[in-house]
Amino acid sequence: xxxELLTVVILTAHFGFLAYLAVGxxxxxxxxxxxxxxxTAAGWGVLVVAANxxxxxxxxxxxxxxxxGQVGFDEGFVERYLTGVIYPDQYAWxxxxxxxTVVVVSWAGMLRAxxxxxxxxxxx
Length: 124
What we know:
Layout: H1 2-30, H2 35-50, H3 56-67, H4 77-81, H5 92-121
Helix pairs in contact: 1-2, 1-3, 1-5
């Protein structure tokens, strides 16, 4: 029971990380200091995809599944839970492009929001 629960916690953290990756830049519009956390998350995401690295959360999920007596998977988190479920296999590149575009737009909006705040608070 303990390792099954751990697997659920890891999966929840993984989904949370991906959700933050998608919307974290928009959160920085409200809380600009969080942009550094989002830049780190986005950098990690790019590194995992570009260098074909195994995410530590995926490794932890596979480990906890095996400890729980379940079968581990050969594929990563995104391939297992998103590709073919949220978007078709053949559009994985398009999904990555859409996510990258959303992130860049969020960063541009955050920059605009910060500049607007600075103009409002600047001495006249």
